[in-house]
């Protein structure tokens, strides 16, 4: 038993491979069942398209869909960057002055708890459409960055702070060499949430904007295809949105891992 | 022990004093009186131990000397090389925990005080490596703190405190969390360093044995608010080593210090 312990603690390559293989098998089995049900029951594509039809649609409509994907991704990226900069900057401001924090924090919470789908139509009235969509993505995504960064900046080791005080560190030095590095794991955690949320914000705003008229993002494609009963295209657009979400999460998780791997518990793995 | 000398005598002795506290008290915002009034004079090059029950204000006294907090009344004077400038740089502080920055290498951790003081990078790295060598960690400069054992982390912390070549080394129960074997080794290494570098050391501990083994003077403090209960000079053959730890004189001193400490513990819970 004891001799086996290290083997159990550290997953073998075969075990690690299974972590990827198993979900793939489940996915394939699901698709197969779906395909079979559609074919055996002879369900028409405007009710439920078979996976094969969705893939064919994706290829056939690639020109339209890829453009919509690019639009949505650009919106997401702009919202994400705005949320990252805004959230971190606001957290730094809060950290400098308790008064600023007391004055502004309730409004950050209000923005967070008000459903963005309810704000989007208002924003579309007052802002240009593209701006409104980015603002929606920003509103949804900035709060986790703000609250995580605030938490991180407040989690600085007291003794380390005392050490910086002992050596007469200036406020910029303390920020750069102590507070920001200490908050980094928290900031990255916030960014990881914000990545997915800015995609959601962008989609929500596109749907709200779509019903108001123009637009060309993936969410707009979904709404438009719905009106036209082009269900395979709806599924194809949905597939692209899911994939985009997975890729965004994967990229941010990878960045976080690469930045933290030398020192932070979260990136070190369980066998340590 | 601290019967007030005449004022001219005070002035004369100040030159040889590294640290002097006069009538120092510390009352926290919540009204708890943590310290004092406390009078303490530490000569240059002296190794003194502040010994007392937990919560007696030993660490508070150390933080006051370091300038990390201000006394509620009384004066704290700390001598510096030359001129009054550069507060802090004449002082090295070793905390109870290693207090290292986990996100950077051992060398960068040790270089921190120099970096904050604006010392050029190349010179800072050289001095950090030198400080690491003095605590026997020359080979670990590029390691990260998490890759080191508890005792090694404490050595890094010590190297960081020494890197500015301070006159005064303040140590706040630095070895309390370590196992006894590591602790004995670090005790010996610290004594060797102290003998070769000639720094003033104020060492806070709650271990009678450690205080007697290390210091030239054991200052025993009372329970809160901390005052000086006894000031016991430890005189033995220098340099001390393991034979002192097992000698009759050592256990004799330990008994005296324990006896001085006893009133602090009687009749009250110190938890």
TrEMBL record, chain A:
<keyword id="KW-1133">Transmembrane helix</keyword>
<feature type="domain" description="ABC transmembrane type-1">
    <location>
        <begin position="69"/>
        <end position="256"/>
    </location>
</feature>
<feature type="transmembrane region" description="Helical">
    <location>
        <begin position="45"/>
        <end position="63"/>
    </location>
</feature>
<dbReference type="GO" id="GO:0005886">
    <property type="term" value="C:plasma membrane"/>
</dbReference>
<comment type="similarity">
    <text>Belongs to the binding-protein-dependent transport system permease family.</text>
</comment>
<feature type="transmembrane region" description="Helical">
    <location>
        <begin position="235"/>
        <end position="260"/>
    </location>
</feature>
<keyword id="KW-1003">Cell membrane</keyword>
<feature type="transmembrane region" description="Helical">
    <location>
        <begin position="20"/>
        <end position="38"/>
    </location>
</feature>
<feature type="transmembrane region" description="Helical">
    <location>
        <begin position="69"/>
        <end position="92"/>
    </location>
</feature>
<dbReference type="InterPro" id="IPR035906">
    <property type="entry name" value="MetI-like_sf"/>
</dbReference>
<protein>
    <submittedName>
        <fullName>NitT/TauT family transport system permease protein</fullName>
    </submittedName>
</protein>
<dbReference type="InterPro" id="IPR000515">
    <property type="entry name" value="MetI-like"/>
</dbReference>
<feature type="transmembrane region" description="Helical">
    <location>
        <begin position="132"/>
        <end position="156"/>
    </location>
</feature>
<dbReference type="Pfam" id="PF00528">
    <property type="entry name" value="BPD_transp_1"/>
</dbReference>
<dbReference type="GO" id="GO:0055085">
    <property type="term" value="P:transmembrane transport"/>
</dbReference>
<feature type="transmembrane region" description="Helical">
    <location>
        <begin position="200"/>
        <end position="223"/>
    </location>
</feature>
<feature type="transmembrane region" description="Helical">
    <location>
        <begin position="104"/>
        <end position="126"/>
    </location>
</feature>
<keyword id="KW-0472">Membrane</keyword>
<keyword id="KW-0812">Transmembrane</keyword>
<keyword id="KW-0813">Transport</keyword>
Automatic annotation (TrEMBL), chain B:
<protein>
    <submittedName>
        <fullName>NitT/TauT family transport system ATP-binding protein</fullName>
    </submittedName>
</protein>
<keyword id="KW-0813">Transport</keyword>
<dbReference type="Pfam" id="PF00005">
    <property type="entry name" value="ABC_tran"/>
</dbReference>
<dbReference type="InterPro" id="IPR027417">
    <property type="entry name" value="P-loop_NTPase"/>
</dbReference>
<keyword id="KW-0547">Nucleotide-binding</keyword>
<dbReference type="InterPro" id="IPR003593">
    <property type="entry name" value="AAA+_ATPase"/>
</dbReference>
<dbReference type="GO" id="GO:0005524">
    <property type="term" value="F:ATP binding"/>
</dbReference>
<feature type="domain" description="ABC transporter">
    <location>
        <begin position="19"/>
        <end position="248"/>
    </location>
</feature>
<dbReference type="InterPro" id="IPR003439">
    <property type="entry name" value="ABC_transporter-like_ATP-bd"/>
</dbReference>
<dbReference type="GO" id="GO:0016887">
    <property type="term" value="F:ATP hydrolysis activity"/>
</dbReference>
<comment type="function">
    <text>Involved in beta-(1--&gt;2)glucan export. Transmembrane domains (TMD) form a pore in the inner membrane and the ATP-binding domain (NBD) is responsible for energy generation.</text>
</comment>
<dbReference type="InterPro" id="IPR050166">
    <property type="entry name" value="ABC_transporter_ATP-bind"/>
</dbReference>
<dbReference type="InterPro" id="IPR017871">
    <property type="entry name" value="ABC_transporter-like_CS"/>
</dbReference>
<comment type="similarity">
    <text>Belongs to the ABC transporter superfamily.</text>
</comment>
<keyword id="KW-0067">ATP-binding</keyword>
